[in-house]
UniProtKB/TrEMBL annotation:
<dbReference type="Pfam" id="PF00578">
    <property type="entry name" value="AhpC-TSA"/>
</dbReference>
<dbReference type="InterPro" id="IPR036249">
    <property type="entry name" value="Thioredoxin-like_sf"/>
</dbReference>
<feature type="domain" description="Thioredoxin">
    <location>
        <begin position="6"/>
        <end position="162"/>
    </location>
</feature>
<dbReference type="GO" id="GO:0016209">
    <property type="term" value="F:antioxidant activity"/>
</dbReference>
<dbReference type="GO" id="GO:0016491">
    <property type="term" value="F:oxidoreductase activity"/>
</dbReference>
<dbReference type="InterPro" id="IPR000866">
    <property type="entry name" value="AhpC/TSA"/>
</dbReference>
<dbReference type="InterPro" id="IPR013766">
    <property type="entry name" value="Thioredoxin_domain"/>
</dbReference>
<protein>
    <submittedName>
        <fullName>Redoxin domain-containing protein</fullName>
    </submittedName>
</protein>
Length: 175
């Protein structure tokens, strides 16, 4: 990645993480014909709010596909933690793991230490959503420092649809 902190309109060149087969993949690349991509960063399998969000998003995956958005999710969890999380999940989109501290920092995400070893065994990113347009520019960026602050997925869906249908510009580029 070329940016120190990802900002609206910046290009996300690559984000290399691991898939369930333990292969390294660039999750900015499309694997469907959808021109846009939504990357959901979640805290990890220890977070019940994340489990709830991912399961709710699974019910909307087709809605996102219908407006041209491919959906994926990623965390800093290990392969074993991801596998354990699948017991609580009913998702129909790819989940990835091994988001590193360096990547979290480069993305400008908020990072937390676990409260105890029973929570998790590594620092983790707080929730974020990065929506990439056809040019891999950050069209929408939402990040939180708390597990309790997340965008409403229905509102996000309708906002992306409006943006795509009306060639709405990338906002928040003046800093």
């Amino acid at each position: 990645m070329s940016n120190n902190t990802v900002k609206p309109a910046s290009k996300l060149s690559e984000l290399i993480v691991s898939n369930t087969e333990r292969e390294q993949v660039d999750i900015t690349q499309r694997v469907t014909d959808a021109p846009w991509k939504m990357i959901v960063v979640y805290r990890g399998q220890h977070c019940p709010m994340c489990t709830k969000q991912l399961n709710a998003l699974a019910k909307m995956t087709q809605d996102f596909k219908d407006i041209g958005v491919e959906v994926v999710a990623v965390s800093g969890d290990s392969h074993d933690q991801l596998e354990a999380h699948f017991e609580k999940l009913d998702v129909n989109f790819p989940l990835y793991y091994n988001l590193t501290l360096e990547q979290m920092t480069e993305l400008g995400l908020y990072i937390s230490e676990p409260r105890s070893n029973t929570e998790t065994d590594h620092p983790f990113a707080e929730p974020a959503i990065i929506v990439l347009n056809e040019q891999n520019q950050v069209q929408v960026l939402d990040k939180s420092n708390s597990p309790f602050s997340r965008p409403d997925m229905q509102q996000l869906l309708s906002g992306i649809q409006y943006t795509r249908e009306n060639d709405y510009p990338i906002r928040g580029t003046f800093s």
